[in-house]
Amino acid sequence: MPALASNFKTEISTLIENKDFVTLKAKLAPWLPSDVAPILSELPIEELAVLFRGCSKELSAAVFSYLEHNAKHKLLKTLTQPQAAALLNELPSDDRTTFLNLLPLDLAMQLICLLTPEERKITQDLLAYPEHSVGRMMTLDYVDVHADWTVRESLDYIRTHGYDRETLSMIYVTDEAGILLDDIRVRRFLLAEPETKVSALMDGNYATLAPTDDREKALQVFRKYDRVALPVTSPESKLIGIVTADDMLDVASEEATEDIQKLGGTEALDEPYTTIALSKMVKKRASWLVVLFLGEMLTATAMSYFEDELAKAIVLSLFIPLVISSGGNAGSQAATLVIRALALGEFRLRDWWKIMRRELAAGTALGLILGAIGFLRIAIWSQFTPIYGPHWPLVGATVGIALVGIVLWGSLMGSMLPLLLKKLGFDPATSSAPFVATLVDVTGLIIYFSVALAIML
Amino acid sequence: MPALASNFKTEISTLIENKDFVTLKAKLAPWLPSDVAPILSELPIEELAVLFRGCSKELSAAVFSYLEHNAKHKLLKTLTQPQAAALLNELPSDDRTTFLNLLPLDLAMQLICLLTPEERKITQDLLAYPEHSVGRMMTLDYVDVHADWTVRESLDYIRTHGYDRETLSMIYVTDEAGILLDDIRVRRFLLAEPETKVSALMDGNYATLAPTDDREKALQVFRKYDRVALPVTSPESKLIGIVTADDMLDVASEEATEDIQKLGGTEALDEPYTTIALSKMVKKRASWLVVLFLGEMLTATAMSYFEDELAKAIVLSLFIPLVISSGGNAGSQAATLVIRALALGEFRLRDWWKIMRRELAAGTALGLILGAIGFLRIAIWSQFTPIYGPHWPLVGATVGIALVGIVLWGSLMGSMLPLLLKKLGFDPATSSAPFVATLVDVTGLIIYFSVALAIML
Question: Which residues numbered 389-408 in B keep a CB inside 8 Å of some CB on A?
Fold first, then answer.
């Protein structure tokens, strides 16, 4: 942090310790809350608790928005009920919704009751949208102007109504009924002559989100349009809120974390790995691990059908882990690639046959490569060790041919399973690497022993 | 797209077809290039090629920046050399670097030679920074003002120098030597009295990036500070460029894609799954698949040491896939969680023992759960089928105890391997689920047979 800001923080800290609220107020007065909030948010919680009692509710709200969820929670507990009420009413609606959403239900309900009827209505409306929807993330802190206003009139309006809104980068144009007509970058106003009509700045080029859109969809729209904020409209095209790009950065990271954790074969933790309670983490991991374990039990069942063959040629058992894990690896590659491509919107469900064709080709090529290596390995080893017996070419052929089939099968299963899950309305990321591997293990054993039966026995 | 923009596109399209450049120019004149660029970028390439010959180079550059890489490449080939030169010189430096970076080296060199000496120097400087560094992403299109200027002087300067810069949201304050003193949101200028000094708007609160910072680090800073742009400074604190948040959204998604693909056990594709050449994709997948295959061959070697034991108790082989895959699944869970936590900066390498302690506890708990289920499965089945023989309690105990050891071992390996890789300077995401699973398979077999030897044989 630069020296200026660091000094500022120390000075404020000293004033808080001395409870010198007069000097404190004077010190803070010249600053916009949003400019000092990031500096003040680094103060220890105890000092913040004192500060919040002495400073404006605008500043409290701005600082509060910058804190981590746990710090918010702790701080709120140090405040009296009227103080907490004032603070909560002042918070931007999107920050408030996010905060309440992470609290235990009973506490959230208690806090919602502290809100003014107007803010309570807004909050309940926002919380009524599905989790992970655009509605939950949107803020009502935007500025809208009318098309027949001049730039001067608009700027005057912004000066009186837009003070310290986080979202002054875009100005929205609406008609009397609140229908969205356009969004205009604030710099257009900055660069235009004061008497220009707003309508002359309009280009009719804007993208909108619906409040019921999933946040993953919003992410795709943001990536496409390079905007700092996007308007949210009702089915009747009324402007009802906006979503800002900095919130999307958090969404992008959360969505990726969720997908990555699911791909790793665990439920999404929804909390940082380092701070989640051990019991909670074990629960989230155990559920998937047990499901996979029960699925994998079928391998024992499948193998028991081939017990006689195994007894006749114990050498077959040596290659079981090698053969089935190759199918699992190929499958987890395919699943991972398809799941990520789906999340990025690279293709649609109805293109499934294109994916299938690709994996048919890729799976065959990969199977041939591994099959050839497998055969060679057995051929070379057999020259040095008697372990594969005089029939090593048969063993080699069995392993090689089984590998082609299993790798191809794994690639097809891995690529089609996420599509099937999506089609059925589930999250495609559920078809994690371990999940696909387990499925391929069972079918892989059947392929392996069938090839062995045909060639060796 | 709203009706207004759609009409506009159709009109432009007709004018281009009719080669009516006079009306075309008049039609485009009132608009800022950056406002119409997203609309025009949706025209077909052939029409764009005509448009680029008739419109200003500012507009060409703005439209060009909006196109996909392949469209850019195709379009450039339709232009004459002087046209291409004019276009490339006009591109924002960050967009140009990104574009050149994705081209084959010889073509990129050819295009760099078309640049003016000044722009060539800028481009070569930017390309000299390591791949995926902040230097490669930064743009020089920022506006800086001096602390002793008034708001009016600054706005005049912005009007003449800042016209159509993408990055007018933040204004930078520098001294005569170019040292960065502060960044100020443009709305502060908008809301301030014209005669206010810039120094009065300064709060000394800003975060900076170094050009050598990895883009993953930049992402963490952006997430922390909620800024639309961050300044990049030299070691002497000189302002040398800025990075914008909309580019970070792409970075966030690319970084996640890379990590996800590596976690799935394939090299990062670096191209969309649906468009990458099949041969290229097979190559990227085959390399890892072969490495995993060679590693997995050790399972055959390990098992051959236990061939006699296997022959004595063929029932042991039935549970091999079940037992080793459980270790692999536990390992891939742990690896995935730790890798993601590392990427998000949730903990540091020196905290490895904290992670180890967590996994020791989680692994033991998960192992006991699976071990108990495994024992029960064998106990129940043995009542209905003679397959496990009269010694089923021994078989059950072997499987159950081995599971505890293997799941614990998998969790420890999975969590420590990414940390070890990072410590050695490799990308932790390389320790993918399949990679960890393969390692655990080999050691898992040894644990399984050792337990069997102790209990059964």
Answer: 407
